[in-house]
């Protein structure tokens, strides 16, 4: 009988630590007696049959590298039934009995569709934004926060030298996790996140209070989607007289060597995903809860709501003057 095969793909936005997860999946599956294929460029590779056989050594020397060696992409065709059926056909032809999908909510929807067609898929949350509800942690989040902090530390040096205000936009898609945590870690005077209504006027008030308390330079941390940081900087300058600059950190936050936390969680999740597929369990997504691996039905996971870290937001506000 032909050897059972497990497929692995990365999909949607890339995140540092994805490679560590790929490595864990490949090594775990091979040890358990599976053949492993890497599927390139997300669901595109599944539709077009872009498969590469992975062995123990094919994932050597990648645990410390950002990005994804399997490439990632968005795939329109996979959103419709004909695309999903093509992907299913590739699986049947290649004896693929399970797929690990590393990505975000969109990728998990695709994984649910393919599971419904009889190809068990297990999702691993990989996104720098930490915006996946069923898990306290997503692969790439820690690295992205650390990159943001490193960059803002550099901006602070120049803001301090010139008595300036630096208004910094960090990533997060529709979530403020990076802004809040990087903000508190950078000693930001104000943090603007989508989860808490904060007007530029509130930020200006806070700056004025800090100014009266002897502060000379300011970091304002703004989550992506809140507004144009150049415009915010202009308003701050007009109303306070403090020279202000806007900076968008952008894609630099998506790259770089993954931190210890990202490598460890990615390794755990990769291992756990193969254990599920070995039991023939699909349509699941893995999460981290109270520092333990858990798994959920994909539809249930997509319906979950994640509480915002309100206590942390309050602390950040209370200690930054
Ligand atoms: P992320 O996984 O990071 O949330 P996207 O939302 O872009 O990123 O989704 C990645 C890919 O997953 C899409 O390009 C598509 O191929 C697939 N996908 C997204 N939503 C669906 C859906 N509702 N049904 C099937 N596939 C989907």
Please provide a written account of the structure.
With 321 residues, the protein is of the alpha/beta class. It has 2 domains: 182 residues, Rossmann fold, CATH 3.40.50; 113 residues, Phosphofructokinase domain (Rossmann fold), CATH 3.40.50.460. Helix content is 42%, strand content 19%. It has 11 helices and 11 strands. The strands form 2 sheets. Strands 3-2-1-4-5-10-11 form a 7-stranded mixed sheet, sandwiched between helices. The chain has a 4-stranded parallel sheet with strand order 7-8-6-9, with helices on both faces. α1 packs parallel to α9, α5 packs across α6 and α6 runs parallel beside α11. The mean pLDDT is 97. Bound molecules: adenosine-5'-diphosphate. Adenosine-5'-diphosphate (ADP) binds next to α4.
